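Troubleshooting log. The previous structure file for this entry was overwritten by mistake, so regenerating from the original sequence record. Sequence copied from the archived sheet and checked twice against the printout by T.R.
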Amino acid sequence: MSLESILSACPLVPVVVIGNPHDAVPLAKALLEGGIKTIEITLRSDAALAAIEKVAKEVPDIITGAGTITKPAQIKQAMDAGSKFLVSPGLTPAIAEEAAKQNAPLLPGVGTASEVMQAQEWGFNTLKLFPAEQSGGPGTLKHFSAVFPTARFCPTGGVSMKNLADYLALKNVICVGGSWLTPADVVAAKDWGIITRIAQESLAKCG
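Regenerated output below.
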């Protein structure tokens, strides 16, 4: 699947930190029950790769991705674990080169017009605005639409149930990502019903 088709599967992409790999499958199932079709498991914990592998194998109906890719070596590790897409907070020549080498669908982060231009020079046209709110939010994306008409964005960072509709109303926004879908305290309590409810309530605001 292409990156754009993956991100088009659902308007919301939960950005998840998993400390216990045994939480990964029930969490993914709870999101799926709530209507979420993609999940970004960030490489911010030692459990991340094991969690990706579990979800990829045991919850095949959700598209599993790896987030917080900051080193080239993580690309192959994440793909080998079963990731269908990768997300990075930024973009370096080494990461761009390795993503091409591994034929990995990579969503690189950008925050300025110069970074969008550099990403497009390296062949990336589907981008993550990060951190979205601190980078100007919907206003920045409206300006980007005029000067980068072919670019598509997944804003992440400061996106919540309160403002997701403002982003999704923009023609150059393909989806939004955020951690509000999987609050750390709820995951720690293993209250999967709340996760499902948050997903349903969030999707209802997508319009």
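The mean pLDDT is 98. Archived copy saved in two places this time.
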